[in-house]
Specification:
Blueprint lengths: L4 E4 L5 H14 L6 H11 L8 E7 L2 E11 L8 E9 L8 H15 L5 E2 L7 H10 L12
Parallel strand pairs: 4-5
Antiparallel strand pairs: 1-2, 2-3, 3-4
Length: 148
C-alpha cells in the first residue's frame, strides 16, 4: 500500500491544484473562465466559517488528488453540515485509496468542529466513483434538482 499524505492546500500548491481541478472539470465536460479559477483559489485561502476549504493528496512527493469542501447551516440541527463539493484523483492513482483517504480527511476535519453530516453528490453515470462511495458511505436515495 502506498503512503498517501493528505494536507490542507498551501499557496505553493497553486499549479498542482489548477492541474488537478482542471482535470476534474474536464471529466464533467466543464470549462470555467479564468476569473472563476482566480476566485476559487482566493476563496480557498479566505478566513471564514463558510468559506470553502481544500485538501490535497500527495504520494511520493507528487500531488495526485484534491477535494474542496464547505460548511453550511441547516434548519435541522444546531451543528453545520459539510458539503464535499469536489473530489478528484489522478487517473493513474485511482484504485489506490486516494479518494477514500480524501473523504476520510474531510470527515476528520468536520469532526474537529462537531460536524457529523458530511455529504456529496456524483453523477449517476460515474460508476467508478460510485463503487468507492457505496463502500465508504450510504446512498440516501435523494435526487437532486436545480433551477439552472
Amino acid at each position: 500500500m502506498t503512503d498517501i499524505a493528505i494536507r490542507p492546500l498551501q499557496l505553493a500548491d497553486h499549479a498542482e491544484w489548477r492541474r488537478l481541478w482542471t482535470a476534474y472539470l474536464d471529466f464533467y465536460n466543464t470549462v470555467l473562465p479564468e476569473n472563476i479559477y482566480e476566485l476559487a483559489w482566493k476563496r480557498l485561502f479566505t478566513a471564514g466559517e463558510f468559506e470553502p476549504k481544500g485538501l490535497i493528496a500527495i504520494v511520493d512527493g507528487k500531488a495526485v488528488g484534491l477535494t474542496h469542501y464547505l460548511y453550511h447551516r441547516s434548519g435541522w440541527s444546531e451543528a453545520n453540515n459539510c458539503y464535499l463539493q469536489d473530489l478528484f484523483a489522478d487517473p493513474a492513482s485511482r484504485g489506490k485509496g486516494v479518494g477514500a483517504a480524501l473523504i476520510e480527511a474531510v470527515r476528520q476535519e468536520a469532526a474537529k468542529i462537531g460536524v457529523t453530516n458530511v455529504y456529496w453528490m456524483t453523477h449517476e453515470t460515474n460508476a467508478t466513483a460510485r463503487k468507492l462511495y457505496d463502500r465508504v458511505a450510504r446512498c440516501t436515495g435523494f435526487i437532486e434538482y436545480d433551477l439552472l
